[in-house]
Amino acid sequence: MYSKYSLFVLLAIFLLLIFALGREGYFNFKTAQEIKELEKKIEELKKDNAELAEMEKYLQSEEFLEKEGRLKLNLIREGEKVIIIKDETENSVATTSQSQKQENPPNPYKWWKYFFGK
Predict the structure, then answer these.
(1) What whole-number distance in Å separates Cα of residue 33 and Cα of residue 25?
(2) What pLDDT digit, counting tens, does each position of 62-88 carry?
(3) Distance CA 76, CA 70 (A)
(4) Per-residue pLDDT averaged across 34-52, rounded?
(5) Could you give the CA distance from residue 56 to residue 48 in angstroms, rounded to a whole number?
(6) What pLDDT, on the 0 to 100 scale, is given for residue 93?
(7) For the stretch 62-96, what's the b/e string if a residue is b when 16 or more beta carbons lie within 10 angstroms of its beta carbon?
């Protein structure tokens, strides 16, 4: 029959096998999770790539080039006329700030007047 030592050795081998199988199972589980995360990332990158391709297509279109030419280079089409409208509020702001300067002199000037008179 089996002796106590052979039973102990078989039990130790059995425990080592269970430990090794558990470790391999955990490794496979982690690998599967990592694969799922990478697949999600691939889908996100494909989506971003498609959006960038659409943006590139728009940036190379005539519509975009015309818009940028009008805004940044002040280009016009043949037969168009440019009308410039001056903003009157800019002049009124400058006049108001000048009148405030005359009404409210700077503090050093006020102190000079206070101590030394006019």
Answers:
(1) 12
(2) 999 989 988 898 888 888 888 888 877
(3) 6
(4) 97
(5) 12
(6) 58
(7) eeeeeeeeeeeeeeeeeeeeeeeeeeeeeeeeeee
In order of 5, 16, 62, 98, the CA distances from 57 in angstroms are 77, 61, 10, 52
Taking alpha carbons only, the member of 27, 26, 25, 45 closest to residue 37 is: 45
In the chain the first and final C-alpha atoms are separated, in Å, by: 126
pTM of the full predicted structure? 0.48
Q: How many residues does the chain have?
A: 118
Residue that the structure tokens 């999600």 belong to: 40
| 8 Å CB contact between 64 and 58 | yes
Sign of CA dihedral 103, 104, 106, 111: positive
**Residues contacting 75, CB < 8 A, separation 6+:** 69
